[in-house]
Every structure is written in structure tokens, then in C-alpha cells.
Specification:
Elements lengths: L1 E9 L5 E6 L4 E6 L13 E8 L6 E9 L7 H17 L8 H13 L5 H16 L18 E4 L5 E3 H4 L4 E2 H10 L7 H11 L4
Parallel strand pairs: 3-5
Antiparallel strand pairs: 1-2, 1-4, 2-3, 4-5, 6-7, 6-8
Helix pairs in contact: 2-3, 3-6
Length: 205
Amino acid sequence: MQGFVLNVKRVKSEDLLVTVLTERKIKKLYRFYGVRHSAVNLGFKIDFVAEPVQNKNILRLKDLMHLGFSWLHDSYRLGIWQNFLSILNLHLQDTDEIDPFYYELLCNYADIFEQSNPKRLIIEAFLKIQKFEGTASRYDFCFICDKPTAENVSIGKGFMIAHHECLGSYKFAKKPTVELITEGRTIYFENDEVDRLYEITQKGF
């Protein structure tokens, strides 16, 4: 079985409780002496076996193998990837069974994560999740005052669109913002604007 590590929590001196997103489930697994194993790390893709533990209502994480990506040695890219998976973990924390969409999305973006600006990729992945879940923001009306938006807009948590005067945050041109919301593409934004859009993803879904 394969999956991505969404969370790692120390539960005893050397044991870990590990949350893993697989193709159809989010599993909470117990790893004995897990702190000794470098493969148990947030954001890593792993191959593993989930084995029942006698007299305990939990599965044991065993036969663990790290499935590496070349960009994992880039601390900048790794940090951005880990932040995204932490946010995804919070978003899915009350879920046990999931659609394969989430696993496939992580696989796809992990494969291309060294090829582009990682912040652009995370923004696009974030918006794809919103579109899949049916929570993509409307863009024609301000979410604060409910009046039509103008040529320039501000963007709140979850990429909610508002008048700049209503939200008071950074001002974006509406046309590329609509393209961002509907198509999930950051191509029309400069890198400094991408930095601001990335900060919006850090607020969560």
C-alpha cells in the first residue's frame, strides 16, 4: 500500500502516531520506535503495510519504505510541500474514506514539483481541491457586501472575492483573478503577486 504522510505525532518516548493519505482512505497508524526511522516524515510518500495490533483498536505501520523525489533535498521546496500537506491534513481531519482525487492530485504534483515555481503549483492544487469539492468562490459579487465586484478586487481566505474597499487587503486585477478562480492558472500573475496568493493558501480552506 502507498500513501503520503499528512501528520506525525510522538505519543511515547520513541513511538509515533502517523496519519497517511492513501488512494481511498486516511489511516492513523502506530509506528513503534518511529523516531528512529527517517522515512516517517511529513510530506513523504511511503510504501507500507498496515497490520492489526493484538488487543488494540489501531493498526501498526510496518515494512516501511520511503518513495523519494529528487526535490526532497531542496529545503525550500520541501518546506512548501510540507506546509501544504499540513493544511490538507487539517482540512480532511474528520474524514476516513476519501475519493481517489486527493491521492492522485498529490502524486501528480509531487512528480512535477521541481519543474516550476512551487508556490504556483500549490496555489493551483489548492484551487483544484476547491473546484472538486464544489467550494470555488464566486467572483461577480463581493462576499462581504454582496454587491457586484469592480475592475480590482481583494482576495480573502479560501479565495473569497471582495471589493478592495470592503476587505482592505492587497488589490488584484479582476480579469486574471477570474481566470485564477475558474481555470486554476497563475500564469497572468507576477511572482510578487504569486507570493501574496500563496499566503492566502496558508490560511486554509
